[in-house]
C-alpha cells in the first residue's frame, strides 16, 4: 500500500511533465527522430545520365560521365541559437550508379528546428589513416588508395574527345589530406529560418540537394580536358577540390 | 599523465591476455629494451582465434588470382618474413614486382609502411598486395566471396569475431593480429643489452658494435636499427624509383627510401629497396667506395663511410648478433 503510493507520487509529475510538453509546440530536448537527405545528381541543370549523355564543361568541351561517386561525412546541424549537433559516425558514399545510395537516412537526431547544415566533402584526416574500416569506408567500395593510404573523396571518370589520354579518358580521383595538397573541403549552407529543418518525433523531413558534377571543372579555375584529364591526388586535385568546394552542392528544398 | 594512463591501460590489457589454462595464450609481448608500441590492439582485441585465423589467411594461396601466391610466399618465415633470394617481389603469373619485399617483424612500432611510407596503418598494409596485378592480382570482393563459401572459414570467423559475417574489415583485423604479434627482440644483441646472464659480445662483436655506433646509428638507430626516416644512401646518381617523393610530391624526397631495419639482416638478403646487393660485403663496400652523389644524398654520406677490411669484418660480426633464431624458428608463426 505504502509502496504503491510512493510510486504514484513519483509517476504523477512524470505524466504531468510529459503531457505539459506535448501541449505546446516546443519540442522536448531529449527526443530523437530521423531525417533524410536526397542527393539529386545533375550536370548543369540536366539529370546526370551515366555513359550515354554528352555534356559540356565551362570551356565548351564535350564530355560523358561513366562513374560519379563522392563521400559526404561528419554532418553537422545548427540551430538558430547557435547550438550544434554533429551526427556521430556519419559517413556516406553517394554513387550515381546506385539509386539506393543517393538518398541517405540519419537516425537518432535530437528533435528541433535546424537552420544550418554543414558536412565534409570527403573523409576527415583521421579516418584516412585509421585501421580497417567497414560500411561506407570499406575499401571494397573502390574509394581507397592502397599504395598511398587515404580515401578518394570524389571520383569522376568519363571520356572527352578533347582528352589526350589513351582512349580519351577522364580520370578525376580527388583525395589527399596533407599539405600542400590537402583536398578536404567543408560545405555549409544556411536553411531559410522561415522553413527550417523541423525534426519531430512525428515528422521525418527530407532535404533535397542538387549536386552538379560539372562543378569539378569550373568555379575558381575552368578546366580544359586538353590539359587536365587525369589526377589522382596532388596539386591538380587541389584545383578541382577548390572548384567543387562551393559549387558541387545546392540545397534545393526541404519537405518538412 | 596521458602517457601514464596509456601505459597503465597497456599493462592491464597485457595481464588480461596472459592467463589461460589449456592452450598457449597468444600474447603481444614488448621486450624490455623496446619503447611503447604504436599499435596496441585497442580496436582489435587480440585472441587465440583471431590470431589463428589471421595466420591461416596469411598462408592461404587460394586468395590469389591463380591460387599460387599467399602472403607467406613473399614473406617467408625462415627469411624473417621477406622473400629469400628475390631481388624484387615475385607474385602471381611469375610477375616481378618493382621492390624488394621487406621483412615483417616489430611492425607494431611502425607509423608508416612500405619503402616510401605510403601506407599509414598496419591494418591496411596488405591491401596493396591483394589488389596489385603483380602480387596477388585479386580483389576484396573475390576474397570475401571465396571465404564465405569455403569451410572452415565461416566457423573460424565466428570463433574469432563472434559472427559468421565476413567482410574486409574482419579479414584485415585478423591478418593484423598475426602480423602485429610478430616481435623480434631475442637476438644476442638484445640479450646483451638486457644484461641477461651469461650473454656477452665477443671482442670482434664488441668492436663492431662500437664502429656501428660511430658510423651507422645516426640512421640505423637502436633498438629497431632504423629511425624510420626516409633518406638516400647514394645507390644511384639518378634513382629509377621515385621513392618517397611519389607520396609527398616534394622534389627533395626524390630517390629517398625508408631506412631499413638491420635486425635479422643475416637472413634477409638481397638488400636495398631493389634488392641489388646479395651479400653484406657488397653493402659495406657500397658505403666504403660506392656512394654516388645523388641529388638528395644524405649529407652524412657525402664522403662515404671509409671501412678497412678488419672494420668490415667487425661490423659484420656485430650485425650477425642481430639474428633472432627464436623468432625465425618459432613454430607459432609457421604454416601449420
UniProtKB/TrEMBL annotation, chain A:
<feature type="domain" description="Copper-binding protein MbnP-like">
    <location>
        <begin position="33"/>
        <end position="228"/>
    </location>
</feature>
<dbReference type="Pfam" id="PF20243">
    <property type="entry name" value="MbnP"/>
</dbReference>
<dbReference type="InterPro" id="IPR046863">
    <property type="entry name" value="MbnP-like_dom"/>
</dbReference>
<protein>
    <recommendedName>
        <fullName>Copper-binding protein MbnP-like domain-containing protein</fullName>
    </recommendedName>
</protein>
Amino acid at each position: 500500500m505504502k509502496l504503491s503510493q510512493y510510486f504514484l507520487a513519483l509517476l504523477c509529475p512524470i505524466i504531468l511533465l510529459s503531457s505539459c510538453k506535448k501541449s505546446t509546440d516546443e519540442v522536448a530536448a531529449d527526443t530523437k527522430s530521423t531525417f533524410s537527405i536526397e542527393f539529386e545528381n545533375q550536370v548543369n541543370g540536366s539529370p546526370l545520365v551515366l555513359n550515354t549523355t554528352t555534356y559540356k564543361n565551362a570551356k565548351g568541351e564535350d564530355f560523358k560521365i561513366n562513374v560519379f561517386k563522392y563521400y559526404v561525412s561528419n554532418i553537422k546541424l545548427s540551430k538558430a541559437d547557435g547550438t550544434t549537433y554533429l551526427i556521430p559516425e556519419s559517413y556516406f558514399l553517394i554513387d550515381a550508379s546506385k539509386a539506393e545510395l543517393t538518398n541517405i537516412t540519419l537516425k537518432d537526431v535530437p528533435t528541433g528546428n535546424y537552420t544550418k547544415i554543414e558536412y565534409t566533402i570527403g573523409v576527415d584526416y583521421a579516418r584516412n589513416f585509421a585501421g580497417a574500416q567497414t560500411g561506407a569506408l570499406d575499401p571494397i567500395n573502390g574509394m581507397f588508395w592502397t599504395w598511398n593510404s587515404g580515401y578518394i573523396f570524389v571520383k569522376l571518370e568519363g571520356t572527352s574527345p578533347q582528352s589526350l589520354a589513351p582512349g580519351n579518358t577522364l580520370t578525376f580521383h580527388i583525395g589527399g589530406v596533407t599539405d600542400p595538397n590537402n583536398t578536404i573541403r567543408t560545405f555549409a549552407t544556411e536553411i531559410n529560418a522561415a522553413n527550417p529543418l523541423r525534426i519531430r518525433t512525428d515528422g521525418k523531413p527530407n532535404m533535397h540537394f542538387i549536386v552538379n558534377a560539372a562543378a569539378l571543372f569550373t568555379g575558381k579555375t575552368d578546366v580544359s580536358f586538353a590539359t587536365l584529364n587525369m589526377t589522382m591526388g596532388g596539386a591538380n586535385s587541389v584545383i578541382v577540390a577548390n572548384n567543387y568546394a562551393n559549387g558541387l552542392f545546392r540545397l534545393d528544398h526541404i519537405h518538412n | 599523465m596521458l602517457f601514464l594512463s596509456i601505459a597503465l591501460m597497456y599493462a592491464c590489457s597485457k595481464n588480461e591476455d596472459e592467463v589461460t589454462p589449456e592452450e598457449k595464450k597468444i600474447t603481444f609481448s614488448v621486450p624490455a629494451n623496446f619503447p611503447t608500441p604504436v599499435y596496441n590492439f585497442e580496436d582489435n582485441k587480440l585472441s587465440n582465434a583471431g590470431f589463428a585465423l589471421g595466420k591461416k589467411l596469411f598462408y592461404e594461396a587460394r586468395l590469389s588470382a591463380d591460387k599460387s601466391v599467399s602472403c607467406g610466399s613473399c614473406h617467408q618465415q625462415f627469411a624473417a618474413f621477406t622473400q629469400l633470394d628475390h631481388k624484387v617481389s615475385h607474385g602471381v603469373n611469375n610477375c616481378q614486382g618493382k621492390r624488394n619485399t621487406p621483412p615483417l617483424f616489430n611492425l607494431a612500432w611502425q607509423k608508416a609502411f612500405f619503402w616510401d611510407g605510403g601506407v599509414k596503418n598496419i591494418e591496411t598494409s596488405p591491401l596493396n598486395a591483394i589488389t596489385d596485378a603483380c602480387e596477388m592480382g585479386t580483389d576484396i570482393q573475390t576474397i570475401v566471396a571465396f571465404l564465405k563459401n569455403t569451410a572452415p572459414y565461416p566457423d573460424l570467423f565466428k570463433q574469432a569475431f563472434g559472427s559468421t559475417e565476413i567482410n574486409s574489415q574482419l579479414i584485415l583485423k585478423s591478418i593484423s593480429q598475426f602480423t602485429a604479434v610478430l616481435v623480434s627482440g631475442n637476438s644476442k644483441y638484445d640479450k646483451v643489452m638486457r644484461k641477461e646472464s651469461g650473454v656477452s659480445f665477443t671482442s670482434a662483436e664488441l668492436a663492431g658494435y662500437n664502429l656501428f655506433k660511430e658510423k651507422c646509428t645516426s640512421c640505423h638507430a637502436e633498438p629497431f636499427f632504423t629511425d624510420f626516416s626516409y633518406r638516400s644512401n647514394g645507390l644511384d646518381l639518378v634513382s629509377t624509383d621515385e621513392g618517397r617523393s611519389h607520396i609527398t610530391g616534394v622534389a627533395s624526397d626524390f630517390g629517398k627510401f625508408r631506412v631499413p631495419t638491420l635486425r635479422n639482416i643475416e637472413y634477409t638478403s638481397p638488400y636495398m629497396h631493389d634488392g641489388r646487393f646479395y651479400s653484406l660485403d657488397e653493402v659495406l663496400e657500397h658505403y666504403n667506395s660506392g656512394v654516388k652523389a645523388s641529388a638528395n644524398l644524405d649529407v652524412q654520406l657525402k664522403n662515404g663511410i671509409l671501412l678497412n677490411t678488419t672494420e668490415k669484418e667487425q661490423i659484420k660480426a656485430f650485425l650477425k648478433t642481430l639474428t633472432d633464431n627464436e623468432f625465425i624458428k618459432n613454430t607459432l608463426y609457421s604454416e601449420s
